[in-house]
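Long-time lurker. I teach an intro course on protein structure, and each term I like to show students one example going from raw sequence to a predicted 3D structure in token notation. This year I'd like something fresh instead of my usual example. Would anyone be willing to generate the tokens for the chain below so I can use it in lecture? Attribution to the forum is fine with me.
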Amino acid sequence: MRLNVVDIIKGIAIIMIVNVHLISGQFFPIGGTFHVIAFFFTSGIIHGVNEKWKKMSVSTFFQQKITRLLYPFITLSICYICFHLLLNVIRGDLFFNIVIKDCLIQTITFRGIGTLWFLPILFIGEIVFFITKKNKISDWKIIVVGLSAIALSSYLNRKGVCGIQWYGNKTLYGLLVNNPTTIFLAGIIAFFFIEIGFITYKKIPNYFIKEVYSNKKMLHIVMICVISLMIDLFCLQFYEGDLHKLNIGNPFIYLICSFSGIIFVCTISIIIERFLRYIPSILLYFGKNSLIIMTTHTEYYINTITYVGISGLSSVLGFCVSNKLLSGVSLIIIMIIEIGIVYTINHSFLKYLYIMPKRK
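-- Reply from a regular --
Happy to contribute to a lecture. Here you go:
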């Protein structure tokens, strides 16, 4: 069973991911605190709704996640490498240059090329979540493990042991010790937010599955939405959190911003579904196809081409465009382009890059 609110959350989150990657700077000041962890959170909600995993063995669940997460990781990595090889031929560069070598290292070590880092991290989080649930480990113990991983990540990053200082290090020490440590800790943090989503759904399922809310409940949701937004905006100036590079600053601020961001995106999604007419359909479309948007908007230079095109056109026409306006227009154009890309992929053989073909 698909929940509209969950897909709307993912739709907003993927827009925020594109927003964060805009060359001219972010258009929306918020989003950086929840744009990635919202996907982990919604994964936990889905586990709470669909409990088929309870009947699965570890090997079956493992195979399912390999098919859904690591399969597209491998296929898309191959596509990115082939794309850059083609660019080398077109530009007359060295065929097997440093870019290709980096791509191969990033793929083999599961660091991931560009946004593909997300898939191995989610895979680790999903597997750890399943194992803990199968062994009936209490929610409180899981929360303690997650909080400890966040605190440890912050400490190790400050000490320069792993994280942003070491992530992607190509020395033998970096490849065998520091990069795997960084990836594992990021996976445990993903597992923590999956668990938070799971607990949230179990405690308040009606907020996600009822399409008609009472006026009293909606008033509570609006108030919570406003308060969480204010907290997020206030703490944003002190926030430092990049799960990709495990660049976590103050763990307390990281947690406040993460939870305020999650609460905001959940409540605003409920409000959008309840009161707006057309926007939910667009966000549902983005949410259901978020993986395609995530893995195409940067690595194939859509972001760059859009920026260069708009800034170049404004210069030719003699318009002075602020970075804020440039970011807003770029975001709209990129999302329109992504609609075309999503449609093309879903209606061609390219869909098998994301979904493993079923055996006859």
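Some talking points for your students: The first strand starts at residue 241 and ends at 242. The chain has a mean pLDDT of 89.
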